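Lab notebook, bench 4. Continuing the backlog of folding jobs that were queued last week. Each job is logged with the same field layout so the records can be merged later without manual cleanup. Today's entry covers CPBP family intramembrane metalloprotease, a 255-residue chain. Filled in by technician R.K.

JOB TYPE: sequence-to-structure
TARGET: CPBP family intramembrane metalloprotease
LENGTH: 255
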Amino acid sequence: MNAPHFSEPVEQDGVPASSTAVTRTHRWGFGAFFLAEAVFLGASVVLAASFGDIGGAGSTAGIALALVLILPTLLAGITAVVITLVRGQGPVADFGLRWQRSDIRTGLLVGGAGLFVTVFATALWTRWVGEDANSAVGSLLAGVNIPPALAVLLFFHVWLVAPVCEELMYRGLLWGAMERLRWSRFTVFVLSTAAFAIGHFEPERTVLLLVIAIPIGVARLITGRLTAAVIAHQVNNFLPALGLLLLSLGLLPAG
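JOB STATUS: finished
OUTPUT FIELD FOLLOWS
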């Protein structure tokens, strides 16, 4: 049986996107997303159990925290890429992960607008919820004094690397699995947005995460490719990553 084909608009040589099409082919479905999610959860549980209660100061606590925060997300992203290579045509073809100027521009514009909305929504959420508004990452960093080099590493991970890995999972594997079943683009957008918010496993912040996820999904929706969503996600993560950097360096109060 031949693998299903998916066409999406793409801008080429100045020709409007609606005038051309690129075919994407993959043979993976929901199982691919659940496998990547299982890798993330499994690595998180193993590392958390290995290190126990992370606290205090010094390089040991800092390294443990960095591994807990970085490694599960990175492994899940790598799993997503491997799946596309084994069961598809690779992330470029399967996800439309091309670094085109039009997609970068769209990602910056949508991400910038989303950042404005996110800042406003976060301010309202913080006033409503109070101290419980902190993210899981922020709560962990509040209890550990880590070396500056590791603080910078975490900053770049939260800002640039984590968005790539998360997009490979949610608006890559999950989006593609629903595309493969010929679900409507709006349905794919809604369900992947909800899964993104729920998949962070922070019940008290799920509504806020939905607000954050909407512009990222919009970037994927209007371009049909993952690149714009990655850029929008990175733009959205810059201020939180900067805040975590300042917090971990002791330049912002933990409360």
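OBSERVATION: The CA atoms of residues 11 and 17 lie 4 Å apart.
SIGNED: R.K.
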